[in-house]
Amino acid sequence: MLDRSALRIALRTLGRHRGFTVVAVLSIAVAIALNTTMYSTLDAMLDPRISARKPDHIYAFFYRSQARYQPHPKVLSDAMRGGLPGFEAMTFVPVMSNDFRLAENGPRYARITSVAVQPDYFEFLGTPPLEGRTFLPRDEGTANIVISDRLANKLFLDRSAVGRTVVIDGTGFTVIGVVRRNSTFGPLFNDVWVLNAGPMAAISHTLIRFREKLDPYEVKRQLNTVAPRIAEATGARPGESAFMGGSFVLRKLRIGRFHWALMGAVGAVLLVACANLANLQLARGLARSRELALRSAVGASRRQIVGHLLLETAILAIVGLAMGVVLTLWGVHVLKATMPPGLQDVLIEPQTSWKMFVFAAAAAVLCLFLVGLLPALRISRVNPDELLKSSAGTGANRHHRRRYGLMVVAQVGFSLPVLIGAIVLIQRMWLLHSREYLVNEFHGFDPAPIVTASVPFGTGTTTADSNIRIGSVAAEIISRAKTIPRVHDAAVFMWRAPAKRKVTVDDAYGVVREEPAPQWSYNVVTPSYFRVLGLPIIRGRDFSEGESKGDAVIIDAPTARYLWGNDNPLGRMIKFGDAGSSLPWHTIVGVVGDLRDTFAIRRRDPTANYRLKEVYRVMTPRDSLMLRKPSPWNRARGEVDVYARVRGNPELAAIRMQRTLRTASSADKATAIPLEYAVIGYEREQNDFAASIFGTFAFIGLGLVAIGLYGIVSHSVAERRRELAVRISLGATARNILHAVLREGNVLILAGIAIGLLLIKPSIFWLARLIDEDNDPYNALLFAAIAAGLFAIAVISAFIPALRATRIDPVEALRSE
């Protein structure tokens, strides 16, 4: 039984070996923190905790009918209270928006989503604020907002957000509270909640909570029983009214390839850390052989020696566990603040719970077993008579050295796939940030100095189908955009679908040919479009500013090859409909460089029908924008896109453009973002985050491998001390000794690299979602270079104790037994 004296001895022993103690604690802490943080993320995916009251009882729906207006909230509320037996509470969401906005706090920007709600929104959800408060009725008419904890962390770091001002789309708002964001639950998915500022004539969604969880069919049946009452109150025909929608399903992500890659990486780091510490324990135990032999000689049993060694390791594990929990809490905080929206389909913010602490304790017990028990059993096998004769090593443990060498092989084998995966992701990250790759391979032009905006029409007071002469409105939009500081030029863009999903082309000599285009739309642009985007006209000419007939068309090179092969497309005719239609013919006046988009670059199919979308017709004053009655379920055909070439900060220009263009339409929903983010932002953020995660794993793994190799070579030198002393006494040079020591280590390193190379294919397969599938990720030259780099690092780590072996004093080592 271990008493206080044993504890004091263990603490004193660890204090004498401060270097080993620090390395051991840090290794255990980092390994536990990485594994526990990843466990917290996976736990949030499989069993999300929602900060709402009975979230699975909440249903979202909207009422659809032929009435001119959506019913007033009071009409809906009265019908629900009087017609639903399980009704408990209700709230309204006047404007459900997931449009990208830009929030600013000093020099920091963040892209956010926002939603307009009623004052009782958070009370209905039962969501408590993390700080400050949520909305009250007196907040109506004010510029108060509630923000998510993720946005608060991004804009204000560790400072309190309550009472601070956040500039959103150029308008200042005061933060009154912070709530926990949850990407698995729709009502808490956004970053900003504002109060509805306008009349509630149209409701995007209605949220209702039932007293108990109901089957979706039962919910629909109950809602449809009150639909006739609402139809009668609004003047709609009962047979043409119904509720649409359903429950907010709590999104539980499935474990996929990316998650297996994460678990494999952190598991490899944990095993490497444990194996390294076990080797260090063995090397340290050999250095303490005389001490252990003395204890055995004075009566200590092997059980007592093992207990003493385990006590030392338990102290290390407990301290490492405490530090690991602290690092885990910090890591969870960092992940929440830095996890990009692009990963929300595969990864969500981690959550802290009692299971996280249990997992950390289990990892510490595993470390105690691997780092403490197994080495303690080996070290405790001491022969006092043998060891008390001399402080030199025995040199008779080659079998045991091979056994320990297997741990080196495992360390290198586990570390190499993590390192290669990180390098592949970092290489992809470098490509996505490379202007040359973005222009020449990914998209066809440089989107960095361009801001794109979407301007809707008819989503405000317009209530009937109508047309807008977009040609004249486009001129006003361009004029407004050019008044924004640092906006150099602007263009307007919109899509059109060909009649009957067919196009007709001129094959020369009066022969025409129809081409089916089931998923095709052509583009109507202002003459400045190609100039703004910086797309080169490689054949023919660009649109001229005075061109108003609308018969000029420009196509891209792949479309020209698809329609006419190697023939000259200039002067050819195209009709946006079938051959028998009365639609006008248009003349090809130019060919633009290959404009790539994300979908096209991944398919790499120049003959597919989607390539036909790169056909551009010049916009004329006769062009109209068809509008429909606005409704929550259909907002199609009411928007145009604006592109502006800017100088300076594109995010600041996007905010200014958004404010300016909103006055050009009847709604306040105009949005603008830097085109670079729209083109590649999600993929870049996703890859940057994954590369940083796996880069961290690889960096830690490399450090642990270096420490482990240092320990095992030190161990080998200690065991072979007498053998090396004999060699030195017989005339061996320092070079001979280095070769003798490093040869054994190099064999182990090469064996580990060979095993690691075998594990590369499944590792890359797990990361396939984050790698460009068109570029072969199995780059033999790159993998060979990474393996050579790992070998060099390993050899350098082993060289230090090998160099120490050349300084062995043969007289001291060969003293009589």
Radius of gyration equals 35 Å
Annotation field: number of helices: 24
Q: Assess the beta-strand content as a share of residues.
A: 15-25%
Largest sheet, described in full? 12 strands, mixed
**Separation, N- and C-terminal Cα atoms:** 35 Å
| Overall 3D form | globular
Mean pLDDT: 76
Category from helices, strands and their pairing:
alpha+beta
In the predicted model, the low-confidence regions spanning at least 5 consecutive residues are: 198-202, 390-396, 459-465, 597-610, 630-637
Helix content: 40-55%
Number of strands: 26
Write the layout of secondary structure elements.
Blueprint: H1 4-16, H2 18-46, E1 58-64, H3 73-83, E2 87-93, E3 101-105, E4 108-112, E5 114-117, H4 121-125, E6 131-132, E7 144-148, H5 149-156, E8 165-168, E9 171-179, E10 192-195, E11 205-210, H6 216-234, E12 242-247, H7 257-287, H8 289-297, H9 302-338, H10 354-379, H11 384-387, H12 398-432, H13 435-443, E13 450-456, E14 466-469, H14 470-482, E15 487-496, E16 502-506, E17 512-516, E18 522-525, H15 529-533, E19 537-540, E20 552-556, H16 557-564, E21 573-575, E22 586-592, H17 598-603, E23 615-618, E24 624-627, E25 639-646, H18 650-662, E26 671-674, H19 675-719, H20 721-729, H21 734-758, H22 760-766, H23 780-805, H24 810-813
Parallel strand pairs: 5-10, 7-9, 18-23, 20-22
Antiparallel strand pairs: 1-11, 1-12, 2-11, 3-4, 3-8, 6-9, 7-10, 8-9, 13-25, 13-26, 14-24, 15-18, 15-25, 16-17, 16-21, 19-22, 20-23, 21-22
Helix pairs in contact: 1-9, 2-7, 2-9, 2-10, 3-6, 7-10, 7-12, 7-19, 9-10, 12-19, 12-21, 12-23, 19-23, 21-23
